[in-house]
Recover the amino acids of this structure.
């Protein structure tokens, strides 16, 4: 067994933190529709989105670090290729989060409470689905890279950029 550590956090602390974030998101998701479409409700929704995105970033870093501990690169070339892939994945995740932040809300002031609630839930589900799909793509990329020789790995990274 190995121990995965990020600066200042043990693995257990990270799992507890992620669990608390999920509980907070669930609670605010259920409570937010009752607040309607006022500025405070929009701020809660924005905070939910930011927390989910922070959780996505943390999970990606944890996953990358865990892979590096379990299957360390064989040589300097492979290490560089893996580092480049990780940086590329983090940048793409940040780009996705940015796009999610600037997407206009679909709820309109003229919508009734039920419609606003349904639209907010659909937006949240869409963002969660995008995060899951991106995570699956990242894992697939790493598995593809693991099956290639060192030169192929570097070429894969160059093509991804």
């Amino acid at each position: 067994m190995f121990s995965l550590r990020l600066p200042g956090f043990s693995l257990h602390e990270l799992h507890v933190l992620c669990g608390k974030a999920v509980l907070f998101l669930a609670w605010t998701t259920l409570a937010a529709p009752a607040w309607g479409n006022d500025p405070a409700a929009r701020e809660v929704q924005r905070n939910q989105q930011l927390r989910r995105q922070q959780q996505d970033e943390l999970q990606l870093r944890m996953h990358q670090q865990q892979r590096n501990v379990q299957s360390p690169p064989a040589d300097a070339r492979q290490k560089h290729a893996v580092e480049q892939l990780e940086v590329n994945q983090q940048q793409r995740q940040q780009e996705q989060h940015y796009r999610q932040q600037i997407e206009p809300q679909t709820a309109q002031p003229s919508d009734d409470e039920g419609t606003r609630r349904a639209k907010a839930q659909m937006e949240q589900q869409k963002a969660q689905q995008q995060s899951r799909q991106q995570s699956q793509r990242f894992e697939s990329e790493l598995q593809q890279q693991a099956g290639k020789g060192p030169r192929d790995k570097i070429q894969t990274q160059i093509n991804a950029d």
In short: The first helix runs from residue 11 to 31. Residues 8-55 form one domain.
